[in-house]
Amino acid sequence: MVDEHDKLLPVANVGRIMKRILPPTAKISKEAKETIQECASEFISFVTGEASDKCHKENRKTVNGDDICWALGSLGFDDYSQAIGGYLHKHREFERERASAAAASSSAALAASNQIQIANSIDQATVGCKGQLSYPANSPLEFRSLMEKGQTSHTEPL
Known about the structure:
This protein has 158 residues and is mostly helical. The protein is built from 5 helices and no strands.
């Protein structure tokens, strides 16, 4: 069984929010904090209950931000609905931008990692067993190496 206090917002958070709006010298009684705590918790339950009913009718299990905005509007809190709708829109834009920035950063990191792997592969492929440089067959670098050793009479790369 769920204890009634478990359904309430934390009183410390409620008090902190109340202090933000009041002058710095204002005092808030414990009773005032608890009253606002109960009212705010009941309001949240009221709105989420309406949103949950909508989701249930639509055979959905998850309540989202749009459902909360709809519930606020249907309960007569149009001003809140519009304000939260605007916030939700900005939040989604921010998340999209953050995701695309993370993807760009990730692909840049992947490209840098691939360049390092390619460079390491080239380094490993060009160093022979005894630490001498060798080059892939028919490469200009192989031709230059052969010319330096006097092993070919060609003047063009193979």
